[in-house]
């Protein structure tokens, strides 16, 4: 994708095992020696006697590589001293300091917009580079590189919730080139990043179109059936229209034997042994597919409620997740023994003489089902929306005879199989592009590739980059989040 790059003329041993050799004129420094760190104490509350501010919060950093004027910031209040200390300046780099997943630790964002009332919010570390030593644009790319990010990850303390101490952040080791080289590296990686993002965006648009086509097939099948000439009747649901005359419209609660909410155990660290209990993560339920490998080990001394063990044929529905994935459903088609539900997933036990799991799953995934789910999901855009059991019981369900339900499931599977193959291939290409991006950043930031000449030859472009993912959650391994509420991580 990018040709003509080679190594520097001469190298020396860096003295850092993960870094290995580096250009002979580069330095190795700890973060404390290249930037000042400030950890914000400004929360989301409004307090009398304080001044109004706009908060750059955890979610703003987590979802945006750059803090720009286009973002909508939360309003709160802060003291005069807090505003002075935590007001954002161009060139600052913000890091996520706490999270429920170690992979979400130290996600960086470069501040490109400042204002008198714009301050750093809670759960973030503000890094202010020392003038003449470190450039914010380079620090962004350095903290994104694999070797530096790994240092943050191994320093994160916790089991189910993770956090970085002040000393851990300050002790991170960075390769430090000259000021001119920092600018060249930032310029080159910004250019490469834009190109990679464009390729990813093209693939994501293709995936989105294919998913829309798949949704249209499912919607037609679960609301009108397979026979286009069958007589229809009013459904009684104003926004739905007509359905086959021999279908029933009933409350979902009448199809359910029970709804079970999983358990919240204390997770263990390390690999899961064969005889050890494990708990599902939210990543196990994703767009109608079940991933039996999306699990965490449970501590061996825990008293595990085995009644929550996952079984073949279970219909699972996420109780809490992002707005796009709350109420996501799947049927368990393969499962590891000694795996239980987590407390963010419901198991729907059905009266199968009335409705079968695979058919109901399709209906929940269809626009007909998603409309009801999204209507009842409770929570703001900054929190994880949740669905209560009473909401599930009150959803409408369209119920054809059981044999017809089986026919619909088989037909949808057959008609969408080719689409699934194309989507899978496109997702694999996206994953390869992301891996290429990761490797390129690591090689450039550690000096394995000399980009000075290439950067000088680049055309002038705006410094700001667009979000990497225009389409949310396209099978990105980095998004295997166990669906934490990133707006309110735990303080360590």
Description:
With 492 residues, the chain is α+β, with helices and mostly antiparallel strands. The protein has two domains: 11-201 and 426-479, DNA methylase specificity domains (Adenine-n6-DNA-methyltransferase TaqI, Chain A, domain 2), CATH 3.90.220.20; 248-399, Adenine-n6-DNA-methyltransferase TaqI, Chain A, domain 2. 32% of the residues lie in helices and 20% in strands. It contains eleven helices and 27 strands. The protein has a five-stranded mixed β-sheet with strand order 4-12-8-10-6. A four-stranded antiparallel β-sheet has the order 18-26-23-24, covered by helices on one side. A hairpin with a 7-residue loop joins strand 15 and strand 16 (242-244). The longest helix is centred in the middle third of the chain and has 46 residues, at 179-224. Residues 467-492 have low confidence and may be disordered.
